[in-house]
Design a protein that fits this description.
globular; 74 residues; alpha+beta
Length: 74
């Protein structure tokens, strides 16, 4: 699953996002500026916690593929 994160502009931003992922126990395959690829799908609760943590760290929005949103809502 690919997550798009706004306002990631430096390696420091990547460190903050990596730390937030580790706090929640979410393994990632790839971490680039503006993008995180997770190894597994996450639940709606995990998504909301990650979104909250990232907002508190200064990243205002998290976007994921529409297909995943449909799976969460089912």
């Amino acid at each position: 699953m690919i997550l798009h994160i706004r306002n990631m502009v430096s390696d420091r931003c990547k460190m903050i996002v990596k730390s937030d992922l580790e706090k929640l126990g979410l393994p990632h395959i790839r971490l680039e500026l503006g993008l995180v690829e997770l190894g597994d799908d996450i639940t709606a609760e995990q998504y909301n916690l990650l979104d909250l943590n990232l907002r508190n760290s200064g990243f205002p929005s998290l976007r994921i593929k529409k297909a995943f949103l449909l799976r969460i809502l089912k």
